[in-house]
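G., before I forget:
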Amino acid sequence: MSETAHADAHEHHDHRPTGWKRWVYSTNHKDIGTMYLALAMIGAIVGTAASMAIRVELHEPGVQFITDFQFYNVLVTAHGFIMVFFVVMPALIGGFGNWFIPLMIGTPDMAFPRMNNISFWLLPAALILLVIAGLIDGGPGTGWTVYPPLANADFHPGMAVDFGILSLHLAGASSILGAINFITTIVNMRAPGMTFHRMPLFIWAMLLTAILLLLAIPVLAGALTMLLTDRNFDTAFFSPAGGGDPLLWQHLFWFFGHPEVYIMIIPAFGVISEIVSTFSKKPIFGYLGMAYAMAAIGVVGFIVWAHHMYTVGFNVETRAYFTLATMVIAVPTGVKIFSWLATMWGGSIKFDTPMLFAMGFIFLFVVGGVTGVTLANAGADQAFHDTYFVVAHFHYVLSVAAIFAMYAGFYYWIGKMSGKQYPEGMARLQFWVTFIGVNILFFPQHFAGMAGMPRRIPDYPDAYAGWNMISSWGAYITAVGAILFFVVLWKTLTSKETVAANQWGTGANTLEWTVASPAPFHTHEQTPAIGTQPAAIGTQPAE
Amino acid sequence: MTEQQNKIKLRTTVTREPKTRNGVTALILFGLVGGMTGLAFASDPLYRIFCKVTGYGGTTQVAEAPAESKIIDHMVTVRFDANVNKSLPWRFKSVQNTIKVRLGEQALAFFEATNVSDKPIVGTATFNVAPFKAGEYFNKIECFCFTEQVLKPGQTVQMPVTFYVDPAIIKDRNTVDVKTITLSYTFFAGDDQSEAQKLQTTHVITKDEENILISRESSPKG
Amino acid sequence: MQNSRRIILGYNSGVAFLITAFAAFMASGANAAEPIPWQMNFQPAATPVMEKIIDFHNLLLTIQVGIVVLVLGLMLYIIIKFNSKSNPEPSKTTHNTPLEVIWTVIPIVILIVLAVPSMKLLFFMDKAPNPEMTLKITGHQWYWSYQYPDNGDFEFDSNIIPDDEIKPGQRRLLEVDNQVVLPVNTEIRLLMTSEDVIHNWAIPAFGVKMDTVPGRTNESWIKVTKPGTYYGQCSELCGVNHGFMPVAVKVVSKDEFKKWAAEAKKEFAKAKNTPVKVVKMKSPAQAQLR
């Protein structure tokens, strides 16, 4: 295996561009993956800054430092958009996906390397447009849901919302191109012998995510275009005066928006599956069940969108249908949770940092998942809708779980990506600080929500002061965890301690561990033969 | 040497052969993207048709005058509710609060709108009934909401709506409990103001007209 | 505000914190119609709908705590039993069909157990038995207006009392100048719409939360069983002052309500009969306020 890597390095060192051209003109999946990860980190700094400003403002009742409430709404909007489109998606999909899809399926690069370059470079442009949107004409104070009429020209005159829409168009185009690349690569370029049912679960996750992107993002793009023409060219898709309906926007937005949450969490499922299997030194339990559970979640994700809209005024039958359909999602999700537990069961587990984050992920995802069942019920949702309970729920499943998966994936693969060993002790400390921080941050929000505190308000009745103060302290602890992460990152990249090609040992049997660390610029030029490998490749079932 | 050749051969088989296959796959996927985008735009007319046909969201039905023979002796109360959007400087109210009708019986109700601005304006009304499930059975025969309305400055008009409630409403297990139906209108400024522009000469509201307007507004409800 | 600052300062010492928090938690069971400090649960129900929501949520919560504890327990067991020191040799098991069937079927059974009361609750909410009166609610940026079409057809606006006008004993961000007054033990139809953007009229103790959508009228109903004053807030982002358009409802006996309605009709009718202000406009196109 190291022989392959050796030959690669010799053959191709002259093809490798240097300097700024290496990055700007890059068609190399590893470099593009690295750039995605770097962009996600920049996004995370901006997005976290926005959330910290929110938590500082909410630390005590009354106005702390945000006197302009439009600015507060802009912060809420920016936090949502940035975390979704410029942190979680670029890290889990663009970053890990680009890095490890070719490595794990045994192909030299993505199917369309130059399209890959465009996919990436659209994103910084989108981020810049979004920042411009926040800085001009008072910014978009619409929330990430951009509901008209609030988002119409009547209530958001100026260019802010238009810039936001263009930003999402670019980010959407980036995702669509990326998704087409991912699907083509996975469908056509797997090494011989790697059948669909022998693909690692991470590859399954990426394939399903890409399919979801392909089906969901165009709907968002269409809806955004309609909103843009409503704002600027006097169309009336969402304006009742011209025969439109503002609720049509909500239907379209959530038809995209609900699959979008799975777009963020299914890659996390993939990362966690790899890590749990590696550190338990066992193949994943119930591999096929795991793969098809993800597929089922993806499919059902398209027929449950209106559970975000229970209070708009629906026929009771509509709410009944969406309640029942939504509850169905709990079944495949349960399969995943129990399969992870069963994978660990009987294992010989090493609790290195990736595994700590993976176990943290599983537990926190369960906590966030069960409140999802509460919110699925249209009847109960009448008490919870738009309260902090909802904020707590989706931060447990998305923010906390997705970010735990990002941290887990980072520690799992940083050795492969950089060839350096991360400092284990400091990394574990980072886990514990983050774990404690996020729970103090988000758990009390359940209480505030049940007591009735609405979301997206810059000031709250004094009775909610206690839990908000606790929550803000949790946010500060989480921020310390994030700073610690950057320290770990710095220490890793400047470390002299290198890692072996397979640093995790016998449990790690996917193809990326067969190439050298750091992974050479070109890998798998010679197709790895799956059938002859001594160790079982991937997490496929024994045959 | 042979090993090297082998390697090159292998590489070509990996990259060259699937290139067309990749192209085809990408083409199919781009087609899918186009299809989904098309669906997003198609959702606008589809949604309107869906609401009209099923009475979804309390959308009322349009019908011819009902046959006398269909009337049955079961009363429902119809309430009237009038709203004006912020975009329109009109006053708008229902002339009567409620009326009681027999199922299948044609009924007539009036709404009254006044333009309180000093310019002619086109208004257009949206409407629905509550509870929504009654929409399927609420039939309008004639309604001011079918067309745009133009009001001159200070002008007040009474606008009729004729309707009947389909007797089938008591045959539906879902709607048999409905004893009161609210018919609600909201007037918006029309997107197309060309009719108002035609009317707009150099008319400036006079003190007299303003007084008439004020006295009308203050008079008790009819 | 000062009051709350003092509360927060008091909590800075650990023991006081715990004691007060516990006391507040216990007190949250008392009959309060507003949120109280350190509340961890719903506000007490004041309508049959909210009672049923709380009952249903208790069932949900029990099952959920069970699931979380089960997963946590399994994880702790795994950590103790299957770490690389206690269990150096990993098992080779990757399948157990009966087990996989069980963890698919049991969640389905649990969901069915939940779905039945969930549907009951939903259909109960939807059915307005036969309301005796109607309250018309209109959302505006950023206040509510209320109309009583069956009690003399008067209407009034309800604005927040700003922080600097709050009197001692009043609740900051929750008090309004004109409270909605409603009779107790009366089925009331709520009609809701908006004049501009989407708002949401919500009162936690009533279990009512409904969007007010411009161009359409939504319907809901309440029957308040306990007199008192109830508070809620706008629950859909509606612009700059979204956090500053509270709902305050005073529920009184039927007789008191009649008296109040007669008074209110006179008072607010006066306001209604003030001369119309003629809106001066530049051009008809401006009607769209673009």
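Residues 284 and 290 of chain C are 11 Å apart (CA to CA). The first strand of chain C starts at residue 133 and ends at 140.

More on Monday.
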